[in-house]
């Protein structure tokens, strides 16, 4: 506690503003637990950059933690690109303080002689990724906490390729930041180096989204869409993209269309959560819509609901949407003729069906750690290869490589193209999914997230993952564990033969058990939230579409059995 107190007192110097100092003094005087949580560590970069609760302290998002990070990034840019006219672009979302924090970040960059393009108003994360390359910038920053609760904000850094920072840049930037004290931050803006941007970038991005996501599907005049931006940034792009692609029957949920960092109509602005799309689904049932699409606050994730076999709206999970989008893109590429250098990609905790599909089409399959920065890195590392599309189970997808992060804007259009064409053909997107199960096997997944907040929560998560590793799972639902993939040491071991091989993926705190029947259980801590996540994947053959309900029930029963065995239910 003495160390924490000393750290807190270091924020009482004249460098810090009076409001900050007053709040810290009050915490020192009477709230030991809150003081500990705010100062027991520094905010860290995770899979999605730096993200946390806003407020005063080293473990909070505020002008000083973001200022220090920006100073470190400025120092790094000035070293790596010495002698060049360095440029960065900054965007921000609807969250509280995002606009003022973005301005602070711009001022620090400018104070270090770096040219800044700052969006005049909130914009989507995919537009920021696009803007980095469009403007020829050396880096980009977006102020967002994605789908986290209202008290969060964050800071994601992008590199010259438009993708998030990856090794070695991430480690080098972090080292530069950690070498600084807060007092090293230069907040003295050079206003001549800050330029506001908006319409030109919007036009370029929207045009590119339509070009990449529009496949001239039939039936657009009859296809009904309900769209919700969940109070976030996608309202600035998706309605216009759908309009330009020819969709006229688009109903926008007006109650959720105004950007609002309080997210007043939802418990969580996360399309992974069923409740988040409830208002849109209700409207779709009322007006007989064919599809619902909802996006998270910074518009990199999308949730899709379509009519199931009973004619009711059903929300697809991220794996299902990813499979349908990838299948569609592969089929379109097949019609044009494969060149032999194409690949699709996903993450180690996403559905194994993606690899089966890649094999069926004869294209390369690549897998990465969780986080789209790793998929973006693949595109950069293999310039001779052509990325078709890919995603991850957490409701993110990327169409082609013109954006180098998950992109709910173009993916929304792609989902509408798939569903509109399916309806015009006398089928449905849901039936297309069942056809995929017949062709590639019925894969069914379940995600369990356990939240553990604060300093004690971080220790609990650490212990849970340690226990999961040190007490190995021997069998799952009657099937023996065959492989253990330990990404902490980058090895895969066949426990039946004892054979061990290296995994050519960067080390990460992830452990995966795979049984003889292909069941997979993965565990990892969230990189952006105080959660530990368990991913369950089961599979079975689906001989005919008519067997769908029976096999689905069998797999649901198996998942319930697994959750009970692992004490996760």
TrEMBL record:
It comes from the Bacteria. Pfam families: PGM_PMM_I, PGM_PMM_II, PGM_PMM_III. Its cofactor is Mg(2+). Transmembrane segments: none annotated. Coiled coil: none annotated. Keywords: Isomerase, Magnesium, Metal-binding, Phosphoprotein. The keyword DNA damage does not apply. The keyword Isomerase applies. One of its GO terms (molecular function) is magnesium ion binding. Gene3D superfamilies: Alpha-D-Glucose-1,6-Bisphosphate, subunit A, domain 3 (3.40.120.10), Alpha-D-phosphohexomutase, C-terminal domain (3.30.310.50). CDD domains: PGM2. GO terms for biological process: carbohydrate metabolic process; purine ribonucleoside salvage. Belongs to the phosphohexose mutase family. This is Phospho-sugar mutase.
